[in-house]
Amino acid sequence: MIRSIHDFENVFFIGVAGTGMSALAQYLQGIGKKVSGSDRYFAPGIFNETKEKLEAEGIRCFLQDGSGIDSQVQLVVVSTAIEDTVAEVQKSKQLKIPIIKRSDLLALIAESKKTIAVGGTSGKSTTTAMIFDILEEAGFHPGVISGAGLMSIIKEGKIGNAKVGKGEWLVIEADESDGSIVQYRPEIGLLLNVDKDHKDIDVLMEIFTVFRNNSRHFIVNRSHPLAGQLSSDRSHDFSIKGEEAGTMAVNYSQHGLEIRFVIDGTEFRLHTVGVHNMENAAAAVAVCRKLGAGLDVCRKALENYKGIYRRHQVLGRKNGVWLIDDYAHNPVKCAMSIRACQPIAPKLIAWFQPHGYGPTRFLKEDFEKEIAGALREEDEIWMSEIFYAGGTAEKNISAADLISGIKEYGKNAFFISDRNDFPHKVKEHLTSDCVILLMGARDPSLETFAKRVWEKL
């Protein structure tokens, strides 16, 4: 029985190239475990950047054919996407090797440190990175396990979503989409917001209530009505409007690709966009103040904040067109992403690829309402067909249905089934001063698509 991270030395990850899995693999390798893994995206003779970076860390990578698992393996880790029919799962069962889910392993890792768990339906990765940067600046030497790569770590040639710190603190992103957030018992639990995403509001509130009860200290966003209901101590909370809290961010302004605001008389300046990032920064400051970090340390760290992978990542400007790539994938996130980019130029063209037929069907009306509500008169929304990752799915909805709904709000909306046609078709819609915002998640080829759009500008 695996009860702690001290109960095994040799561990194998099935689906190791996934963002959540690769982070845990790197972390365990960093604390001295023998780590290996496989992924369906690994193929003979085909370059895979994630595979290369994992191997550079000393993690052995295999094809997803069972060849990497033998009797020396003491633990096998699977993601929720791995089905029992996968050859390696079958082989692990034959060899009677314990199999646990990624979230179970993260819970074991979290128990080994003083943990800050970042929860909420939006902004988790960004806030996790901001907390990590502030604690680094403050000399805490924290560790981090994130759902996205920190650009500061990526620039070291790494994947960027994990780092083992010398200190006693670990910052993790706690996921509510699969309910695994209830497994963690952090020293500090942080709740950013509660919006309809993978689950209905009532279910989310139940999950986040358990998260609060499992946290020794709990910090919430008082300016978000649902999150504010779960407050334990207003003096430790944060807010950007309305409700008073211990950390208040005010006087927001955005100038192109930079935002500014004030917390308790200290002016903050970040090289990013959107009021939601002021909110994320206020959350990070509230947590770090709880640990004793001063406002000046927080200010300095966030002024040097480099951002995270595919979160309003600016790819460049060409022929008067800014190209920005973002991970936005639920209705509220898409609307926030659009609004964050509008101050950059008088016209915005957003492209979105929904993922999953079930989630798209569940959120159809929310997508239409939120996106339509965010678009200015001159802005446009384009969508390509829903990303299908495989498995069983009832394909009874199309991105074209969302576009039709947005058109009914009187907005400029276009369906382009094959995304490869987008760079050519959109050219006649471009102006000498505009933004193309690419949005989507889960699809590992989105980075390649963004590069193709850039080449065609």
Written account of the structure:
This protein has 3 domains: 5-101, 3-Layer(aba) Sandwich (Rossmann fold); 113-303, UDP-N-acetylmuramoyl-L-alanine:D-glutamate ligase; 313-456, Alpha-Beta Complex (Protein-Tyrosine Phosphatase, Chain A), CATH 3.90.190. The model has no long low-confidence stretch (mean pLDDT 94). It has 457 residues and is α/β, with parallel strands linked by helices. Helix 5 (124-137) packs across helix 9 (275-290), helix 11 (331-341) packs parallel to helix 13 and helix 13 packs across helix 14. Strands 8-7-9-6-10-11 form a 6-stranded mixed β-sheet, with helices on both faces. The chain is 33% helix and 22% strand. Strand 1, helix 1 (19-30) and strand 2 form a beta-alpha-beta unit.
Summarize the structure.
By secondary structure, the chain is an alpha/beta fold. The chain is 33% helix and 22% strand.
